[in-house]
Design a protein that fits this description.
The protein contains 20 helices and 14 strands. The chain is α/β, with parallel strands linked by helices. A five-stranded parallel beta sheet has the order 2-1-3-4-5, with helices on both faces. A five-stranded parallel beta sheet has the order 7-10-13-6-14. α3 links the parallel β3 and β4. α19 crosses α20.
Length: 463
């Protein structure tokens, strides 16, 4: 048995020296020597969230099947198979965690094999307490940076207006106050939430508020627009994949389910998810286990789901476009966001906020919102909701003045002669489509709604 290393007194080691992530980490020690396992358990155990031990590769494999570990500390020389062999085998099954390989035999060939097998660090026995703690800390920091990078890339793809309202749902109307009250009541619970409402009404902002008020607020918030991901790529994006699982899979990659681990996964436009993926999503919601594409192993995952849609999912279920079992599974708590037209004077408050922040962001002077501009905004129906208001204010800042385009839109849409909101919406969208010579992409940009929404509306109108 290898002699235990010189151990620095544990009381002399400050956990803060090894970063804030150690206290939230789950760690697995795989070593056939009880003395070495005990040493590392005494060193790391009091400083991490959960620590497990395995005396051989077979026991370690069973533990990986049952729970997720942020870091695995793996001895190389063990009965049966070496740590490098076991690691290479696990990588082929869909194992993504960082691994620190420890060995009493330092040679270049072992180090090369360890790197090829996917080890993140390499320690030579005997080592001190601070050495293993530093190695674990480096792994956790690397994982944190990798996940932040993925999350930030998705945030950069998100709609720009969300950055202006991310802190809260703005407004003092009774309608939005009731939404805030519901969010405050639901946020601390682990229950999945379905947010409904018209396009541009602030569904992602509501999801951000739910996350910020929950006990997961310090963990990732990952937003995914299901309508923006090609159908043939959505499974890989969500579940991840192994190297060689399909053409173009040059390397193994974790999916967004795993990047959101411990936090919140927000699936926007859930009604646009392909039927084949809906059944797989249902299994993840029920079992809290994820199987990457090409993997033979399901990995446990702890996260909260928030869903959003501007479609009528009940109608989609009746027409066979959405699975009934998934609908009933996600529709536990529903929060409906009111359209901007039903939020009283919130349009004025939001306009002032957008004017202040957009002028700063664009580096241009704010345009005073005079009585005429406020009256025009108050009389407009805002079919694009908050997103359309935001675009209107940005256009005003760029031009340096308010125009009468809102009145023109009301006239083009038949206001006030139209008798229903649906008819007003139809006339308004058709008027903008006419102005853009049928260019739906440009019309969606002007209206502040998604291209998918225009396509769905035109289909329902047989246009």
């Amino acid at each position: 048995m290898t002699a235990l290393p010189h151990i620095k007194a544990l009381d002399d080691i400050d956990t803060a020296d090894f970063g804030p992530w150690l206290a939230q980490a789950s760690i697995l020690i795989v070593d056939d020597e009880p003395g070495m396992r005990n040493f590392m358990a005494r060193t790391i155990g009091p400083r991490c969230l959960r620590l497990e031990q395995a005396s051989d590769a077979e026991e370690a494999s069973r533990k990986l099947d049952n729970q997720y570990f942020d870091v695995v500390i793996l001895d190389n020389i063990m009965p049966g198979k070496t740590g490098v062999q076991w690691l290479a085998e696990q990588r082929s099954l869909g194992f993504f965690s960082n691994v620190i390989l420890i060995t009493a035999y330092a040679d270049l060939e072992t180090a090369i094999q360890a790197l090829k097998a996917g080890a993140a660090d390499f320690l030579l026995k005997p080592f001190r307490s601070n050495q293993i703690l530093n190695a674990v800390s480096r792994c956790l920091e690397r994982v944190k940076l990798q996940r932040e990078n993925v999350v930030l890339r998705h945030e950069l793809k998100a709609r720009r207006e969300n950055a202006l309202l991310r802190d809260k749902l703005v407004g003092s109307s009774l309608a939005i106050s009731r939404v805030r009250e519901t969010i405050a009541r639901v946020a601390p619970l682990p229950t999945s939430v379905l947010i409904t409402g018209q396009s541009g009404s602030g569904k992602e902002v509501a999801a951000q508020s739910l996350h910020a008020m929950s006990d997961r607020s310090e963990r990732p918030f990952v937003s995914v627009n299901c309508a923006a991901i090609p159908h043939d790529m959505i499974e890989s994006e969500l579940f991840g994949h192994l190297k060689g699982a399909f053409t173009g899979a040059a390397a193994s990659r974790e999916g967004l389910f795993m990047h959101a681990r411990g936090g919140t996964l927000f699936l926007d436009e859930i009604g646009e998810m392909p039927l084949a993926m809906q059944s797989k999503l249902l299994r993840v919601i029920e079992d809290r286990r994820v199987r990457p594409v090409g993997s033979e192993r399901e990995t446990p995952v702890d996260l909260r789901f928030i869903f959003a849609t501007n479609a009528d999912l009940k109608k989609d279920v009746e027409q066979g476009r959405f699975r009934a079992d998934l609908f009933y599974r996600i529709n536990v708590i529903q929060i409906e966001l009111p359209p901007l037209k039903d939020r009283d004077d919130d349009v004025q408050e939001l306009a002032s906020l957008f004017m202040s922040r957009l002028s700063t962001m664009l580096g241009m002077p704010p345009v005073p919102i005079d009585v005429a501009a406020r009256a025009e905004m108050a009389s407009y129906v805002w079919p694009g909701n908050v997103r359309e208001l935001r675009n209107h204010i940005e256009r005003t800042v760029i031009l340096g003045k308010f125009t009468n385009d809102l009145n023109s839109r009301n006239i083009a849409s038949g206001e006030p002669g139209a008798t229903t909101l649906e008819e007003v919406e139809r006339r308004h969208i058709m008027a903008v489509l006419q102005d853009t010579d049928g260019n739906r992409e440009e019309a969606a940009r002007r209206l502040g709604i998604s291209r998918k929404t225009i396509d769905r509306k035109c289909l329902s109108w047989n246009v």
